[in-house]
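User: Run a structure prediction on this.
Assistant: Running it now.
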Amino acid sequence: MKTIILAGGWGSRLGSLSQSIPKPMVKIGGKPILWHIMKTYSTFGFNEFIISCGVKAHVIKNYFANYESFYQDFTVNMKTQEIEYHNHHGENNWNVTLVDTGLNTLKGARIKRVEKYLNKDINMVTYGDGVADINIKKLVKELNLEEQVLFLRNISQDLKNALVAKSNIFVMPSIVYKKSVEGFGIAYVEAAQYGVPSIGGKDGGASDAIKDKETGIICDGNNLDEIYSSIDLVLKNNSYKELGKKAKDYVTKFEWNNIVNEYLKIL
């Protein structure tokens, strides 16, 4: 199933923001609106995209044509012009077709112009500014994931501990919000006591409770791509098991008897 993204409009409602770039390329959290839409679909297994371009089509085309160099370190052999990329961006499973459907083309006509790239069965269509506040509970029900996804509130300490103990990863990529930031990060220590590694944010005190790439991962909580990649890294080859063992050993340093002994050494 392919997803058509209508990204060819003038974007006049964004005023000066869309004077130099098309509206779908306006950034949220360091990534274009268009990227966020695609990431949402990709999360649910839809990785075939057809982007209907129009106004400032070259900006969108250049973005995807140079995607590798935007998000990876690379080495250029100046003699042969060969490029070697050194890391990955997490979108290797995307297949993106970019089609210039004209400047003033109406929506229906834009879809007609990409028709030759569609599958014969069902296809999906969305707008290039379709970042939305999705009703997650409703979506989980529609996708028949109610046995896999739980929404909990006002739970007891015992139940919380039991859920953490049964987890593979604890994910809390903290960020700075206004003047508020995560302090020491006791939640990471609590998870580690059960042998559960954590993914924490670079902002705040997560780095005091997590040894990056040894007992968990420290990432940029404002960078969705980095969060996704960190989760993938921890799950790959069951890496969370070894990280969890090291995390459990590491956090013994925060037990009160050990802390008191350290203070006694100073005194």
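The longest strand covers residues 2-7.
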